[in-house]
Structures are given as C-alpha cells and as structure tokens.
Amino acid sequence: MKFYYLFGCMTCCCLLFFKQARAQDTNITVKGTVKSVDSDEGLPGVSITVRGTSIGTTTDAKGSYTFSVPRKGSLVFSYVGFEPQEVAVRDRGIVDVKLQADIKSLGEVVVVGYTTQSKAKSTAAVSKLNPEELKNVTNPNPVQAIQGKIAGVSVPITSGQPGAGATNIIIRGGTKLNVYGQGNGGGGGNAVGSADNTNPLVVVDGVFRSLNDINPDNIESFQVMKDAASTAIYGARGANGVIVIKTKGGKFNSRPNVTVNHRTTWETKSRDYKYIGAREYLTLARTTVKSTFDLIDKPTLLNNGGFSAGTRVYTAKGQYGANINLTALYDNIVAVEGQDYVNNLLAKGWQTMDDPINPGTKLLFADNNYEDLLWNTGITQNENVAINGGSERANYNVSLGYNNQVGTFVGTNYKRYDALGNFGFKVSDRFKLDAMVNYQNVQPNYVDNFLNDLTRATRVTPLIRIFKDDGNPMPGEVYSVRNRFHTLQYDDTRVSTERLISRLAGDLEILKGLHFKPALAYTIEDYSYQFFRKQTPASEIQPGTQRQKNQNFNKSRQLMIDQILQYDFDIRNQHNFTLLAGFNFTRNTSNVINIGSQRATNDYIYTINEPATTVINGVVTSNVTDFR
Known about the structure:
Elements: H1 2-24, E1 27-36, E2 47-50, E3 56-58, E4 64-70, E5 74-78, E6 85-88, E7 97-99, H2 103-106, E8 109-112, E9 115-118, E10 126-129, H3 142-145, E11 153-154, E12 170-171, E13 201-204, E14 207-208, E15 219-225, H4 228-231, E16 242-247, E17 254-267, H5 278-291, H6 298-303, H7 319-322, E18 328-329, H8 330-337, H9 339-347, E19 351-354, E20 362-365, H10 370-374, E21 378-390, E22 394-406, E23 413-426, E24 431-445, H11 450-456, H12 484-490, E25 491-511, E26 514-533, E27 549-571, E28 575-597, E29 613-616, E30 619-622, E31 624-627
Helix pairs in contact: 8-9
C-alpha cells in the first residue's frame, strides 16, 4: 500500500508541474521589421528562428515578419553579409531588429573573373576556403582536404592510393549524367574513376592547370566560383565551375621571414575484414567437394592437388616447398622430407588436423595470413622550408617542399619534390610586375590494376603459399590474379611527372581606375610511364607475353597570353562598377608515344632496346606489342 500511495503522490506532482510548464510555454504572435544599422530600408529574406526549435520564418520584401513563438523564447536573426543577432521575446508582441554588417566578411577579397573585389561589392556565388584547412591532413593532395568544407562542392573519392585525390570535382551537381564516373580498374600509374569533361576549370596564379600535386603549404587563398555571374568570363571552359587558387607571395617593406614546417602522420586501413581461417576453410572446402552433386573431377581436386584444400603424394625433396598449395598429408611429408623438416614447419606456425572426409588421416597445412602481410601502417613525411620578405620596391617568397607518403597497401607510395618562387616589383608608381615560377617532380607508385590486385587478390584462399621455401614469392593460382609480392618482385614500374610553370604579369595604371594587365605564362609537363616484367621461373605459371615492356610518354606544352583592360569607378561612393575587356589566348600541344615490346634479352635493361623482329622456329616474329 505504501508503494502505491507514493506512486500516486508522484503522479500528482508531475501533473501539476506539466500544467505549470504548459502555462509558461504558451505561444504569442510576434511581428516586426528587420533593417540594417546603416540603412532605413527593410532587409528581405532574413532568416528568423526560435533557438532550440525548428520554428522559423523569413522577412518579406519590405523586411517585415510575423509568426507565432513561445513567449519565453529567443529569436535568432541571420542574414548573409551581416552578423547574426539573438533577441529574447519576453512577452513582447513587437520585436524590431537592426543588423550590423559583418565588416570582416564583407571586406574579404575574392577573385571574380580576371579581377578581384571585396565581398561587399560582389553579388556572385563565390565560396572561399580558409587555407589553414588544407594543412595538417594525411593526404598531400589538396583535393581531399576540401571534401565536406565548401557548400555545393562534391568531392567523390574513388581511389585510396597515396597522393591521389578526387579525379573529378562536382560543383552544384555538374552538367552531365554520371558525373561521378566509373573506374575501369586500369591505373597505368594514375588514379582512376573519373567521368570525362566534368571537372571545373582550375586557375592557379592565373594559369590553367591541374589541382592535383599542388603543395597545400603554398596555398594562400582557395575559392570556388559557382554561378554564371562569376564564371561567364571564362566561357564554356567555366561551365562546370571555376576553382581559383593563389599561392603565397612576399610583402613589401617587411623583414626576411624563414618558416620551417615538418609533419609526420600515420595511416592505417579503415577496417579489418574477417575472412575465414585456414582450418575452417579446409573443413568446409573438403566436405563440400566430396558431398556436392555437381559434375566435377572429385579425385583430382581432393587427392591430386586440384585446388588449395586438396592433397597429393610428393615423391622427392623440395616438391612440397615449391608447390602453391599448403595442404598436404602429414605422413607423406615426414616420409619425403624427414621429421625435422616437419617439426621446423610446426615451429613456424604450420598446423595439423584430422581429415574431415577421411577420419584417421592426418593433414598438414598452414594459414598464409595474407591480409596481415598486405596491409601496413603508412607513414608520411612532409618537409617545407620558405623564406619571404620585401623592400620598398620588391618582395619575394621562395619555398621548397618534399613529401613522401607510404601507402597502407604494401608496395604503394607517393613522392613529390616542389619549388615555388613568387616575386613582385614596383617598377614605378604606375607600373607593377609579378613573376612566378613553380617546379614539381612527382613520383607515384600506384596499384596498376586495382581490380585484380585489390578486389580479387586479397580474397585468395588462406591455403595458398605466399613464399616458397627459398624465400621467393609464389605467383598465385592464376597469373591475372597474382600474389602481390610476386608482382612487386618481377614487375618494375617507374612513373614520374615533371612540371615547370612560369608566368610574368604586369599592371599599368593608365588613368585613375583604368588598368592594363598583360600576362604571359608557359607550362612544361613531361609524363613518363615505364613498365618491365622480368623473367619468371620456368616452373611457375607464365604470362602471355614474356619479358614484356610498355612505355608511355606524354610531353605537353601550354602557352597563355592575357590582355586585360579594367576600369573601376563608383557613383557617390554607393554604387560600384567594374568594366572589364580583353582576351585570353591559350595554345596546348601534346606529343604522345605508346610503345610496347617483348622477349627482352635480360632483366637489367628496363627501356625498350629489342630488335623489331626475332626468329622463332624458323618463323620471323614481331617483338612489337604496341605502337601508336
């Protein structure tokens, strides 16, 4: 009885409290006008919300609003270009507000077309990213650093290879179907997975170029131009949006400043996949093959080494140690190799078990632990040294950078060497000169065919031998899905890209507000991909092409000439106008060579030097596998 009496008292108290709370939260109708501190005109489209709730409204064309809110609530007023303001209702039916302009935000300089403006004077859709957000990230590519940081910008990451970012960036949904693309599995030394012609135009220091491989530590400003008003001057090239980047420069009348930056980061794979172990797989595989009604050659599979869970009878020393399958008959190996050999295997982790389909027969086997061998902790070393400063007539910024990222997947890495120089000169009171030079040497080492090397090869049976007794790697069950360590030993892949970008730009003030801005830029880019597959032992499965070589060279050149005439003026210091006229001339040339050969005479010369033909069994056969 005491329990029920206490419960009844508590219920009454709760009901009284609830009734009192409802009385306090009664809604009232609030109306008012939102204006700017600097103007007596109402602000249309101001967002008004009740803090802590989903209740909200916006002001009309005259800046007026009206809606029902809790009498004890607080209203939050937000408007682009103005500082947000919070006002408590306090049972008032009229709440008028004046918003203060966000001076810091409006005074921020943005690039629009070939000129710059403050946000207060610009109506274009331009988003600016704080350069600090591009630093202290594990990936040396600035593309990944912008993921999720700019509204309306999608950065699909289709590759986890070291140094790789997104191969396409989508601004406001893109301009074609399937903008995210589809990877075809063939890397060729490059990250894959892009859709054609969906990338925005990237302008770095006034030069059209790729966003990949830019050193994030050199970036001073990063902004995205999204709408037609901001991209129209670039014509069709800006249809997918424009990304404008400015690298760091010096400052006039400043002392030399030296900056040294070192970062070490660690990466691991995102998750572990719990594959079945060797003992469980061996039991499942042998019982399934024996019990199945499928028309398969069961004796060969189970008793003649037809698959990884099958046994065979070895007759000579060394046969088991060179065979791809780890499953064997315990007594057979003892008889051929000796008890000491078997004891040594057991000490290294080999196991024994009773044959699930032949009770009383002892099996010898091992788990290759392939997953543990494939993945490791990737360590990235990033070094940057910069010096900047300036006098009354000149300024400078010179930086050197080095990045070495080791991938989490064995055998992958990314190296980048870069040097940047930005120089500014006041030739006269009316004429300024800017010079920029940027050198990059990029050496990626990617998984050349991730469909085979990652998707398929990582799922091989745990009963496949990874290394022979002599320490050399086994090729795998089929050559197209090879053991990763066999690929690393016999495939020599060398990829590099060298870039040299230079630009000279002037600014001549003809009259007050009238400027002539000529510029000349030249870009040199040399891409090199060289592949050589060494001779594999004759006892192993063989590739279709012996001692294959492939080389791909792409020498690109870009010349840019800008001639811009700009006139800035205002009316009564309230209405600002910019008139821009000029042209851009861009010439791109590319010289591409793809060539392949086979039947190299040795494993030391990785460049193509074989004769065009060779004689095999009296027949003249071509050694050329590809040429275009």
